[in-house]
């Protein structure tokens, strides 16, 4: 299985007034196509910063990031936005759904950046909702759905453009245990049955058990990478 993400000597520095804070220190990492990787570490360890760099939401201060052979660290803002729209699906802790839109219309949002017409967008959204088990909730608005169902809508929105890479930031952090397990099982199925490469930030060791590998960060440094049994 080939390498999808190549991170070489990556650092990230934020400036706070006259002070410079280095959040990531010379990270080197390969993520294989089809992997399900959990990023773990204490608060402030840099795991969300690394996730944002992998997903092209932020740019490194030094080093290089390649995804599917493309150097995303060299892209400007417009090119990076187009690249994200075609290649990356995002799942966040708090769903980030538009409250006035139905589940179907929320899932369609990423497709507004494409050349698909209204009928094609509707069809693709229906396919994505069926994949996450919510085809019967397409007309419901977020306030008519449970937290777990809202996160399923968010996952459908993340996969509707058929991205190669899913980046998930604490996707079960706002859910009860049963709903969390359902979401993690869904992510695992998207990885194993549909070939999605997934990088997930989590503080929950039980959530990390659903991944095929864990990566631990501490104070911006990679301290451990281990395969799970």
From TrEMBL:
InterPro entries: AAA+_ATPase, ABC_transporter-like_ATP-bd, ABC_transporter-like_CS, ABC_transpr_LolD-like, MacB-like_ATP-bd, P-loop_NTPase. It comes from the Bacteria. The lineage of its organism: Bacteria, Pseudomonadati, Pseudomonadota, Gammaproteobacteria, Lysobacterales. Residues 5-229 form the ABC transporter domain. Coiled coil: none annotated. GO terms for cellular component: plasma membrane; transmembrane transporter complex. Pfam families: ABC_tran. Belongs to the ABC transporter superfamily. Macrolide exporter (TC 3.A.1.122) family. Keywords: ATP-binding, Nucleotide-binding, Transport. PANTHER family: ABC TRANSPORTER ATP-BINDING PROTEIN, IMPORT ATP-BINDING PROTEIN. SUPFAM superfamilies: P-loop containing nucleoside triphosphate hydrolases (SSF52540). This is ABC-type transporter, ATPase component. One of its GO terms (molecular function) is transmembrane transporter activity.
């Amino acid at each position: 299985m080939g390498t999808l993400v190549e991170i070489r000597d990556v650092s990230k520095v934020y400036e706070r007034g006259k002070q410079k804070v280095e959040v990531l220190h010379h990270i080197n990492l390969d993520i294989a196509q089809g992997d399900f990787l959990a990023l773990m570490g204490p608060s402030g360890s840099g795991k969300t910063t690394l996730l944002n760099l992998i997903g092209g939401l932020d740019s490194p201060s030094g080093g290089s990031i390649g995804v599917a052979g493309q150097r995303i660290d060299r892209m400007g803002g417009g090119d990076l936005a187009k690249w994200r729209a075609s290649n990356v699906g995002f799942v966040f802790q708090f769903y980030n759904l538009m409250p006035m839109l139905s589940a179907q219309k929320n899932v369609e949002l990423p497709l507004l950046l494409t050349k698909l017409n209204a009928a094609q967008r509707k069809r693709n959204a229906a396919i994505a909702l069926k994949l996450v088990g919510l085809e019967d909730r397409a007309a419901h608005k977020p306030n008519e759905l449970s937290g777990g169902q809202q996160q399923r809508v968010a996952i459908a929105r993340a996969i509707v453009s058929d991205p190669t890479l899913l980046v998930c930031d604490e996707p079960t952090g706002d859910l009860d245990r049963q709903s969390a397990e359902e979401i993690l099982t869904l992510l695992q199925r998207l990885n194993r049955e549909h070939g999605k490469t997934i990088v997930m930030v989590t503080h929950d060791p039980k959530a990390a058990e659903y991944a095929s590998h864990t990566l631990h960060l501490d104070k911006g440094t990679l301290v451990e990478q281990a395969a799970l049994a």
